[in-house]
Each structure stands twice: as C-alpha cells, then as structure tokens.
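FAQ: What does the model actually see?

It sees only this:
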Amino acid sequence: MRTTHLLALPGLLTVALALAACSSSASPPAGEKPGADGGAAGSDAGGVTVNGQIVPMARSSEARVPAASVPAATLAGTVSANNAFAVDLYSQLRAGSASANLLTSPISASIALTMTYAGAVGTTATQMASALHYGSAASTIFAGQNALSQALASRAADALKLATENTPGGATAPSSSDYQLQIVNSVWGEKTYTWNAPFLKIMAEDYGTGVFLQDFVTQFDPARVLINDWVAQETANKIQNLLPQGALDDTTRMVLVNAVHLKLPWSAAFDATQTASQPFTTASATSVSTPFMNTTASLPYVDDGEAQVVGLTLANQQLAVVIAFPHGDLATYEAGLSASSAGLAMPTAEALVQLAVPKVTFTSPTFSLAKALQAMGMTQAFDPKSANFTGLCTSPPDGDNLYISDVLQKAMIAMQETGVEAAAATAVVVAGETAVAGGPTPTPIPMIVNRPYVLSIVDVPTGAVLFLGHIVDPTQAGGS
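And it is asked to produce this:
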C-alpha cells in the first residue's frame, strides 16, 4: 500500500486550493492503484475543530499507511526528488529577491503540489511530475511523502524524550512547547460535491486527511478566514493570513493545505552574554549594526572552496541549521547551487570554529510560486482550457474545467540564542473555468558571517531540505 503523511514543521505550511468537484470516480496518476472498493467516501466521517467550530468531513474509510511499511528506497527516492525540486524552485525565486531576505519551504510546496498531483491526469500529470523531479519515483511518490512526513513528525518527540531523560534530578523538566515538529494536511472542498473516491483514498492513506466541507459558492470569504484560522492554529500563530483577501472567490471548489511548524532548542545553546552588536554589510553595500551570537566550538564544518559551511544541530541532532557563507558574492554562489552542494547538507567532518552569526527574526509576505513553476515546465496545470484535474472530479456539476490559478507560500524563521522556530505555508489555488580525538588544541577557524549568506534547515538522517533561503540584511523583519 502507498503511504503519505501529514507533515507540520515549525514554520511551514502548504495549501492547495482546488476549485471543482466530482460526481464520479477517476483514475489517479500512473502507478497509483486504488483498492478494490476504490475507497469509501463518507459524508460525515468526523471533522476538525477550528476556533470552536466543528467542520464536517468527507473521508475514505481507509486508514493511514504506517511508515514502517514503506521501503527505504522509496523514502530515499522521494527525498532526492524533493531536494532537486527545492534547488530548482529556489533558483527561480532568488533572482527577484537579490536585495531582500528570502525564505522558502520547498518541502511544504512539494507536499501541497503532490496532493494536487493526486488529481492530475494526462499531460497535466506528466508536466507536474517532471517539474517536481519525480522521475522513477513517480509511481511511489505518495508513499514516499507519507514516510518522510512521519519520520520528520517523530523528531520532536524523540528530542523531548532524550532531554527529559538527561534532566538532572530536581531540575525543571523540559517543556513540550519547546519541542515541536508538526506536519499536518487538510483538504477543504465544496460541500455540494461528491469527491472522487480514489482521490479520497489517497488523501486518507497517504496524507491522513479527508475533505472538510465548505460552502465555497456563496460563503467563500468566511471559508478563507476559517482556513487561515486553521493554519494559524497549526503553526502556533506563526503563519497568519496565508490566504489574503481576494485569494478565493465564487469559483473556488477545493483548498488543499499542508502546514509545517518547527520549534526546537539548539543541541548546545549560544551563551547570551557573548551576544554583541557588530556591523553587517548588506546586499546594497550598506552597513547595519545587528546582534551577533558568538561561540567557539567543535562544529560540523567544511570549506568547499566556494563557501564556509557550518552545521548547527538542534536538539537530538536530527535536524540542523546549515549556514553557507560564500567567499565571493551571494549571487554567484547561489547560481552554482545544486542538490549535492555542500551548502545544503550537514557537513560530515568537524573543526574548531570561531563562529559569529546574526540573530534573525524574519517573516516573508505571502508570495506567488506560479511563474517559477511555469518556468520549470508546469504549464498545462495553469491553463484554464487544457488543464486536466479530472482525478479530483470527473464531472463537475457546474461544467467547469479545473486548473491551478496560483500557488502561494508564506514562511518565517526566528533564530535566537536558545533555539530556532520556523514555519511556512503553501497554497495551491485551483479555479474553475467554464469549459575528532586528542592532540594539541587547533587554532579556531574564524567564520564571521557579516555579509549575505544562504541558510537552510535540513533533516540529518534523510538529508531532506525543509527550509531554504538567504539573509541579505538581518535587520529586515519582513511580515505583512
């Protein structure tokens, strides 16, 4: 059986909006094999509570597939596809943010778009698979995303357990609120539609969700507010107003959402008494004064000739913030990034490093991925006339053709002496168109990160890139 998991990292959220409904069954993309019954869709199969309001759900009777049943090769193939997509997407986005901080959550986008891919057919599905770098993983991508989501979702609990076990007697026990890595999915669909059973089966087995029923025809803005409330609820209020006013209208028929929220302490905290302000030269060549965190320690480190790369592990050392500080200008370094670049992976060797890195608190505005995805070859999915999402709904009752009208994302990161919090959200909007050992102590390697740099958050056991961006001015707080 295929497996797909809900993924919620501190600071990440993906939303896919589909604007049509189905009344009959449709085939999922190549390689997906529905069970004998195609998945039973219930009209009252539980629900979700948002701000005290219970939202009814239509859901397949199938249970979530456990990660343990997914082969390791399937998980590895999915991580490889996601990371290739991460770099490709980032290369499209960074050019427009040369003078501003940029933070993306490629894994959130991957999960949201994979949910949407579950309803794509024909050329639409083929182009999506190519842009998302599925390759040979196309037939197992739902299982792989499921296994990856479940693996990531276990990291915080593992870290909290270890921290609790290592807490001395009489000391204050660690708080679970400081150990969070949540990955959650939800699908919001027009309540008058009967959604395709094979699609509902994939959502249940591989994403752990069903379709929360809404009146998008006459109450689309209250639905937008409710979805935003759900996103805020699942990201500890770090991602708010993901869907801005006007993002939905009376053609909206479905919204698929992935939320990620991550909050973890460092494995070794920075000493706050060592934090001191010093100059940082921004992308515009101006100098700003900003607080730098300082430490001298044995850290995962490599210099590949292009950049100094240091890994700062979070609790339990299963996740890490990787900082790549280019020797030259940022644009040249970013132009050479690939999925195998040292700057996007945890260094495997250690060195004594004298590190100074700025504190950062940054929230992006909601921004569109649509042009980037089309430049990557995902064109038919955005075409109102030729897009084929009949896997969502074979025969929409209003006769509309479903297509992606926009893909929106919003992300945040806070990097302080005690730890890191990050969150992100991606929304795919689908609309309807009629029609080391002893020896002498070495000299520390200085790494004073006082110019624009690349920052990522990676999962060490799998190598998955969860967040990717650059900081060109640590005093930019962003937000909207």
